[in-house]
Batch of 4 targets.
Target 1
Amino acid sequence: MRRYKKMAIALAVTLCMMPVGCGNSQEKKELVDGYYTAVMSEYSHGWKEFVNICVMDNKIVSVEYNARNKAGFIKSWDGVYMRNMNAVQGTYPNHYTRTYAGRLLDSQGKKEIDLLAGASSSGGNFQRMTTALLEHARTGNTEIAVVESETHQEE
C-alpha cells in the first residue's frame, strides 16, 4: 500500500510540472489579425493625422503615423515645415512620428506612450487614435476609426 501511495504522489508531482495544452490553442487572443486605421476628425494647421497598424498572430507588427494635407502630401516629407518646426519646437514630424510609432510597436499598446517635448499635441492625438485602433483590433472591426479632435470635443 505504501508503495502505491509513493507512486501516486510521484505521478501527481510529475503531472503538475508538465505544461498544459499545446501551442497557442489555449492562448487568449487579444488582437484580431488585420489592418486598422484611425484618423483625426479635422485638419489641424492644414494637416489631418492618421495611424495605421497591422496585426498578425496577436501582435502589432507595423505602425505608420503621419499626417496629410488636403492635396494628400505627407507631413514628414515637407522639408520646409521640418526646418521651421525644428527651429521653434526642437523636433519635427519625421522624428516624432517615428518615435511614437516605435513606442507603440515596442509596448504593443500595453502601456501609455510618453509625450515628446515640442510634439505633445500630436502625441495626444496619437494616443487617442491608438486607443481607437486597439479597440477595433480587439473586435476585428476594420472600418476607419474617426477620432474627434480636442478642439471639436470642447464645443
Target 2
Amino acid sequence: MIHLITLSSRITLLIFMALYTMIAFIALRRKTSKKRRARLYIYQNFLMFLLIADANVVLFANSQDFRYLLALVMEVALMFSILMLYNQIYPEVERSLVNFLTVLLSIGLIIMSRLSLDRFMHQYLIALLGLGISIGIPAIIRKFPNLDQLVWGYAGIGIVLLAIVFLIGTREYGAKLSISLAGFSFQPTEFVKISFVLYFAAALSRLKKTDSPVKLLAILGIACLHLLILAASKDLGAASIFFVVMVGILYAWSGNLLILIGGFGMIGVGLVLLSTVFAHVSDRLMAWLHPLKYVEDQGYQVSQSLFAIAGGSWFGSGLLQGMPEKIPVVAKDFVFAAISEELGALFAICLLFLCISCFIMMMNVAMKVRRPFFKLTAVGLGTAYGFQLLLSVGGVIRFIPSTGVTFPLISYGGSSLISSMILFSIIEGIYLVEGEDRRSEEA
C-alpha cells in the first residue's frame, strides 16, 4: 500500500505542478479577462493545497512520523493566512504574485521537511517572521510616496552592513557571508541587495539626462563601492547579482543597448580575472569544467548533484526514496538537485517555467509603472530575482560554475527567505501605487 501511494504520488504531484504552471502562463495572456483571471487564481490555490496534502501524506506513509501530518496542517494554515491577509488588506493586489509567493514557499517547506523536520520547523518560523515583516510593506509604500528622496540613506545602510560583514563576518566556503550574534546567524547581503536596488533606482530617477556626467559617475562610484566590498569579502556570487542589477537598472534608465552588451561581456572577463586571484573561484571553475576528474575533491558536490538529477530521471524516485543527503549543502545551494531527484526532472522543469512566469510578471509590473523611481525599482528587483534564479539552478545543472547562491523562497536560510518575501512585497506595493495613480487619473 505504501509503495502504491509513493508510486502514484510521482504522477499526481507532477500533474498538480504542471497544471499550476500552465495556468500561470494562461493568466499572463493579455486576452485573458479579469474575471477569468480571478477564477484561474482560485484554481491555482486549490492545486497548491492538493500539492501540499499529497506530498505530506506520502512523507507520513513512508516514515510513519505523525509530525508530517502536523507539518501538513501548519503549511496549509500558513499559505491560507498569506492569501487571506494580502487579499483582505489589499483588495487590488496583484494576485498572481501572491500565488507565486505561496506556491514557491510551499515547495520549499515540502523539500525542507523531507530533508529534515528540524530544518522545516526553523524555515516555517522564519516564514512567519517574514510574513509579519513583509505584509506591511505595501502599506508603507502607499503611505510614503517620496521614498526616492532617501538616496543616501539606502547607500549608507548598504555600505555599512557590507563593511561589517567584511570586518567581522564568518567565513564560509572561502567567502565572508554571515554575521553571528547571540547564537543567531544572518546574511546582511541578502538585505543589502534590496537597499542597493533602492539606492540605484532612487539616484538615477532623480538624475536628469541633461545633468553633468560627473553626477552619473558619482552615482556609479557609490554603486561600485558596494561591489568592491563584496569582492574583498570574496562573496562573488552576490557581487555578480549586484553588478547585473546595476546594468539592468542603468539600461532601463538610459535605453542604451550597448550597456547590456558591455555589461555581460564584463562578467565573462571578470570571471576569468577572478579565477587567477581567488583560489576558491579557480576550484569552482575546475569543478565546473571537469567535475568527474576532480570527483574526490573540488568536483564532488557538482558530481553528486548530477548523479542525483540523473537518478531521479523524468518522474523522480519519490519522496524519501532518493539520497539527496549525499550532496553537500543540499538544503541551501543545491536544493534544486534534491527536487529533481525525488520529484523528477519534469517537476523541476515545471518549477523553472513557473519561476520564469514569475519573473515575467515582475517585469510586466515594471513596464506598466510610470513613476521613474518605482519603475527602476521594479526592474532592479525583478532582475535580482531572475539572475539569482539563473545562478542557483545553473550551478546545480552545470550550466555555469557554482556560486553558492540560494534558490529564492525554496532554499534553506532565514535571511534569503525573508529578503525574498520583502522583495515580493515591494513589487506588490509598487503595483498598488500604480493602480491608484491610474484610477485617480480616470476619475
Target 3
Amino acid sequence: MDSVTRREEILRILTARTEPVSAAVLAERFGVTRQIIVKDMALLKAKNPAILSTPRGYLYSQAEGGCRRVFTVCHRAEEMEEELNLIVDLGGRVLTTSVNHPYYGTLDEALNIKSRRDVKKFLARMKESQGEPLLMLTKGKHAHLVEAEDEETLDEIAAALKQKGFLLFS
C-alpha cells in the first residue's frame, strides 16, 4: 500500500471511531513502524485540524458547531473552573487544551467540554488522579480549540475572556 492510500485509510478509520486510536495500533494494522504513522499523522493534521492528538492516540473530532477558534490564554490553575465555565456558559465547546513547551514541543489533550457538568467531571478526574494541568508547565499560558455555533458566539467568548484578563490572543 502506498503512503497516500495509507493516509486515506487512516482518515477513514479515525472518522469511523469515537475513541482515540494509538499510533502503535495503526502501525500494526498497516504493517509499518510507529514513526511512519507519526509522520502520516503530522501530514494529515496539517490538512485537517479536526484530527486531535491525545495521550491515548489520535481522534477525529466530529464538528457539532459551525465555527472553531483557538484562544490563547493565561491564568492560574485555581482559575481553570472559572475559565472553562465562562466558555461553556456562552455556548462554546472546549475541544482541546494545549501548551507549547520549550523542551517537549506542543502537548495537547482532547477535552470535549460542553457543559458545567463536564467541567466538574474534568476537574474531579484531575483531583482524583492527583494530576497537574498542562498550564503548570508554561506558567499558566495555554491554548484552547473552541467550537461554537457561529463567529458571533466566538467573539462573545473572546470578549469575556479578555474582560477577565485571561485572553492573550485569539
Target 4
Amino acid sequence: MNTHHYADYKTILSPKNGMNIYRGCTHGCIYCDSRSACYQMKHDFEDIEVKRDAVQILESQIRRKRQPCMIGTGAMCDPYIHLEEELEVTRQCLEIIERYGFGLAIQTKSARIMRDIDLLYAINANAKCVVQMTMTTFDEDLCRMIEPDVSTTAQRFEVLKIMQKAEIPTVVWLGPILPFINDTEENLRGLLDYCIDAGVRGIVNFGFGTTMREGNRDYFYKKLDEHFPADGRRPGMKQKYIEAFGNSYECRSPNHSRLWAIYRDVCGKHKIMHKISDVFGYMNRFESKQAQTSLF
C-alpha cells in the first residue's frame, strides 16, 4: 500500500524555476536515478514526501516575480504519481500557473496528465505549455517489466496524439536506453516512429545507455536478478553489467554509435529538434500570446 507524509519547505520553485511537489515515486521503474543515495532521501522511496502548503508557497513565489516565465516540473519526481489522484496538488499548482499567466514545461510518464488537459489547454492559450513524455521501450511487454506501475509506451503515445490535436506542443525524453536490454535498432525506430506520428517538437537524448550510482544501482541489480536471472548455462544480466561496467557512473551501450547515427538522421529528415541546447532553449523560453495584465 502506498503511503505518504508531509514535510515543511520554505520554497517550491528553484532558482531556475523548477518545481518538485513530491519526493519519491511509486511507478517502479527499475533504473530510476532518483533512488540514488546522493539525493539524501531520508525516507523509503515509495513513502512519498509531500511538500506541505505547496500551492500557497508557489503562489507567493509567483506573485513576487517581476514578469512571467516558464515553470518546469517533473525532473526529479513525476507530478502524476498514484498519490496525485487523491491529493490533486499538481492540479492546484497548474491552476496557479494558469491564473497568473505563466508558462509550463511538464514532464511525466503517466496518462494521468489527461485529467488536467483543460488546464494545459488554458495555459497554452495564453502563454506556452510544453508536455514532455518520457519514452524508453517500444515493446509493450518489456515496458511493463522495466516500468511496471505506470502507463505503457503505447498509452503515452496516445497522450502525445491527443496533445497534438489540442495544438499543445510536446517533447519526448528518449531514454534511458538500457545496454543489452532495449538498446536495439528496432526499439529506437519504433520510438522514433511514435515521435514522428505525434508531431513532437523535439527529443531530449543524452546518449544511448544509462547511469548507475549508489542506491539506484542496488535496486536495478535486484530487479535484473528477478527478470533476467542466470539459467545455469549462462550468467544473468546483472553479471553482464558488472563485467561490462563495474562501478562506472556511465553505462554506455555498445551500440551507441550506430544508434546515434540513426537517431540524428531520422530527426534531421523529419525536422525534429534534437540538439540539447535547442530543445531546452525552446522549453525555457516564455512566449506570451496576449498583452500582459496588470497582475504584475
